[in-house]
């Protein structure tokens, strides 16, 4: 297991903690592989009853590590990022998240696949895919409009508007907003321990029934988004946006039709 992912177990609650604070927990190919491995193992482990995904008290994740992503872009369904997406989306047991500070890109979209989400009030969530010349991913183009309606979803996915933890609760994207990251983590842990003590088969069945009406469509959308996202990574717009990001300048899209 990568040292960038800390794995802890308390009774039947398995915690996966992003541990790259010097890089704001930006996700690398190695980290995606470690998360996918952990979720796949937890799915098969009868002693794991629930999973908690968290960062630290100051930061959930800044999203993809741009340098690593450009050096090792996903190339197909077996790429680590897509393995992680598939493992989380199909996970049969309860998944919780504790969010503090930045939750950018996949740091927000992965929350759409969690069953319980607890955020610090001042958490800063954002899905800036269009801003980077990319497109929505991880089912966000399906799930966000389903939750919020088209116009509010467009503000988040087309304009890339950021929002706070308190706003996430108001939008229905999180359960509770707590005072800070430590409180959010403790609340998620408390709820996770409660869930892991419940009848596991009944929990898994309830989760399956909750998701059943839209899962086939979600799988189709995630696959389509993934293909388009990979294509967009080499588009002139994305190359300009990502180059500007690494060069710490404003991107210039004026030459693009």
How would you describe the overall organization of this protein?
This protein has 257 residues and is α/β, with parallel strands linked by helices. It contains ten helices and nine strands. The strands form two sheets. Strands 1-2-3-4-6-9 form a six-stranded mixed β-sheet, with helices on both faces. The longest helix is centred in the last third of the chain and has 34 residues, at 200-233. The model has no long low-confidence stretch (mean pLDDT 96). It is found in: Peroxisome. One of its GO terms (molecular function) is delta(3)-delta(2)-enoyl-CoA isomerase activity. Its main location: other. Keywords: Isomerase, Peroxisome.
Q: How are the secondary structure elements laid out?
A:
Blueprint: E1 5-10, E2 13-18, H1 29-44, E3 50-54, H2 66-71, H3 80-89, E4 95-99, E5 102-104, H4 106-109, E6 116-120, E7 124-126, H5 140-148, H6 150-157, E8 163-164, H7 165-171, E9 176-178, H8 181-196, H9 200-233, H10 236-246
Parallel strand pairs: 2-3, 3-4, 4-6, 5-7, 6-9
Antiparallel strand pairs: 1-2, 7-8
